[in-house]
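JOB MANIFEST
job_type = single_chain_structure
chain_count = 1
residues = 100
[input]
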Amino acid sequence: MITVSDSTPLIHFGTIKRLDLLRSMYGRIFIKEAVHREVVTEGIALGKMDAFLVEKAIDDWIEVVNPKGYAGEICSRYRIYTSVRRNRSCLHENWMPICS
C-alpha cells in the first residue's frame, strides 16, 4: 500500500524512534516537498533527531514528490485547506484513491 503523509505523523513517530511502524503499516510513503522542508530541512537546522531519521528513510521507503496539474487551482476555488490540498493533489497526480 502507498500512502501520502503530512509532517505530523513523521515528526511524532520519528520522535519516539518508531518510523518502522509507518513502514510496516503502509510500505511506501509519499511526501510533498513542503513536508520534506518542514520535517527534514527545518528539523535538521533545529537539531531534531526525528529529522535525521526521516532523512535516512528518504529514497528507501519515503519518496519526495512534486505533483503538477490543476489541483491547486481547484482547491483554491473550493477553499480546501492547504495541507489537505497538498496531499490530495499528490494522490490525484499519482492515480491513488483518496479517502476522506
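[summary]
The two ends are 17 Å apart (CA to CA).
Residues 33-45 form the longest helix (13 residues).
exit_status = 0
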